[in-house]
Specification:
The chain contains nine helices and twelve strands. The chain has helices at about 20-35, 50-55, 75-100, 115-120, 145-150, 180-195, 205-220, 240-245, 265-275; strands at about 10-15, 40-50, 60-65, 70, 105-110, 125-130, 155-160, 170-175, 200-205, 230-235, 250-255, 280. Helix 1 (about 20-35) links the parallel strand 1 (about 10-15) and strand 2. Helix 4 (about 115-120) packs parallel to helix 5 (about 145-150). The longest helix has 26 residues, at about 75-100. The chain is elongated and about 65 Å long.
Length: about 280
């Protein structure tokens, strides 16, 4: 017999900040969650040691797009720009957090970006990062920091490519496994906090199994007083799942890190494909 899913509790949210548009989208979404869940927000800016090292090379140049013009780059200039970016990130955090009335803090560290973010994440209940990166093949793809966090984050992870759309449903993928129950628990908490609707994608290989999953979800939700809309998905293909998710036109997608019917590779592919904010639950 599997253990019951534990309550999804978030008291401290860490948001990784940089100068990108996706970073600001991650901050907006983290603030929204902090407000509704009564959580404290910590902003982290990492001065990328690799950029500093590259700037120290005699041949280092900055190339401007689209003009193609270039200018020399040195350590002092790079360190100055990193400090400017950090101040901008702190101002954005302060403005959003104080406007929303939530507790916040901010710190700057120097090192390898992914290493420092993952190290800091161990002290929080939820890590939030911008998705970053673009692909002409299909919308936005994950940047290297987001990909690394999706695999190695020690606790729950929120990946944000676009800000959380207002008045959209919380969505969860469910296959009946214990990890899926944990994802459903988190989705239910978010539905209550955001006073939203719940859409459950039931991953099954037949109509009979879909009905069994629907009964299982109904039993789990009954005690929570939450109702759900069910959408059967008779495939484990990530592209098909992504199309189903995006047909809901926005909203937060909750996924378990592991499923019985979905491979880890399929989950990673699904996360890359969708433009929705994605909450990955351990």
């Amino acid at each position: 017999m599997s253990e019951p899913a534990t309550e999804f509790v978030v008291r401290r949210i860490l948001v990784a900040l940089d100068a990108s548009t996706q970073s600001l989208a991650a901050l907006e979404t983290a603030v929204a969650l902090a407000v509704e869940m009564g959580a404290e927000l910590e902003g982290l800016f990492v001065e990328d040691i690799n950029l500093v090292r590259v700037a120290a090379l005699p041949v280092a140049r900055r190339i401007f797009y689209p003009s193609g013009t270039e200018e020399p780059l040195d350590t002092a200039r790079m360190e100055h720009e990193l400090k400017v970016q950090a101040r901008r990130a702190q101002r954005s955090l302060a403005l959003m957090a104080e406007r929303s009335g939530i507790r916040w803090s901010f710190r700057v560290v120097r090192g390898k970006v992914s290493v420092e973010i993952l190290a800091a994440a161990s002290g929080s209940d939820l890590l939030t990062v911008g998705g970053s990166g673009w692909s002409l093949a299909r919308k936005m793809q994950l940047g290297s920091t987001a990909r690394n966090a999706a695999i190695n984050a020690p606790k729950a992870l929120l990946l944000v490519k676009q800000p959380l759309a207002a008045n959209r449903p919380v969505m969860v993928v469910f296959d009946g496994s214990p990890p899926a129950e944990q994802a459903l628990q988190a989705a239910t908490r978010l539905v209550r906090d955001f006073r939203s609707r719940l859409t459950v994608f039931l991953v099954a290989d037949s109509s009979r199994n879909t009905q069994a999953l629907e009964r299982q979800v109904g039993h789990l939700l009954k005690a929570k007083g939450v109702q759900a809309r069910f959408r059967p998905v008779h495939t484990t293909d990530a592209l098909h799942l992504a199309d189903a998710v995006e047909s809901e036109a926005g909203g937060l997608l909750v996924l378990a890190r592991h499923y019985e019917r979905l491979s880890e590779k399929a989950i990673q592919h699904l996360v890359r494909l969708v433009s929705n904010p994605v909450l990955l639950v351990r």
